[in-house]
Amino acid sequence: MLAALAIVALAYLIGSVSFAVVVSKAFGLPDPHEYGSGNPGATNVLRTGNRKAALLTLLGDGLKGLVAVYAARQLSMMLGTPAWTVAAASLAVFLGHLYPLFHRFRGGKGVATGAGIVFALHWPLGLMLTVIWLTMAYGFKISSLAALVAAVLMPLGMFYVEGASPTAWAMVPIALLLVWRHRDNIRKLVSGQERTIGRS
After folding, report:
1. pLDDT tens-digit series, residues 11-23
2. Measured between alpha carbons, how far is 141 from 100 in angstroms, rounded to an integer?
3. Cα separations (Å) of 194 from 50, 67, 78, 166, 200?
4. Would you give the DSSP letter of residue 196?
5. Helical H runs in the chain?
């Protein structure tokens, strides 16, 4: 039990590293909390016009989800922790991104980190959801709409490929949190005021 809790705590700490903040500081850009949507994520960093910084933010936030869950799976097998360990670690790294300990609990919306989690759990599903996100984002030029569609499909896809496993059930609160974090975007989508990708 202690080993399982340690793995979950480690996943949360990994999730707490906000790459939007780290990359912005490295590139001498403004704090992503202070402009655009105020969200520390790749889409908001892109509003500075620095595509390299936005791409690094996207990759960093995605990789931390993948690394945390992959490490949790390997450690769980080595240490013989309970079956729920990987599912709990998946939720923990996601919560770390949303409410990061290192950044005064002011985190992002979790799209890239959620994608990384899915890739670690079942990469073909992660690839399929990425293609859907890219298709929606390219077609409509609205990141939030693409994210919401992927969020709804994520738990459905995981239940399809894994059945009612602990990790499939973990996708339900992650999807709900994704939708909740996009609540302002949903209101703007309904009113036709949502920003398009790259627009400040």
Report:
1. 999 999 999 999 9
2. 28
3. 21, 32, 47, 35, 11
4. P
5. 2-15, 19-27, 42-46, 51-79, 85-98, 111-121, 123-140, 143-162, 166-181, 183-191
Tens of pLDDT, residues 58-85: 999 999 999 999 999 999 999 999 989 9
CA gap 41, 62 in Å, rounded: 11
**Cα separation, 8 vs 68, whole angstroms:** 9
30 C-beta neighbours (distance < 10 Å), count: 13
Confidence (pTM): 0.90
Spatial contact of 166 and 84, defined as CB atoms under 8 Å apart: yes
The DSSP annotation for 34-90 comes to GSTT---SHHHHHTTT-HHHHHHHHHHHHHHHHHHHHHHHHHHHHHT--TTHHHHHH
CB 122 within 8 A of CB 161: yes
Please give the structure tokens belonging to residue 155.
């738990």
Neighbours of 24 (CB within 10 A): 25
Return the C-alpha torsion angle 133, 38, 97, 181, nearest 10: -60
**Which of left, alpha, beta for 104 (phi over 0: left; psi -120 to 50: alpha)?**
left
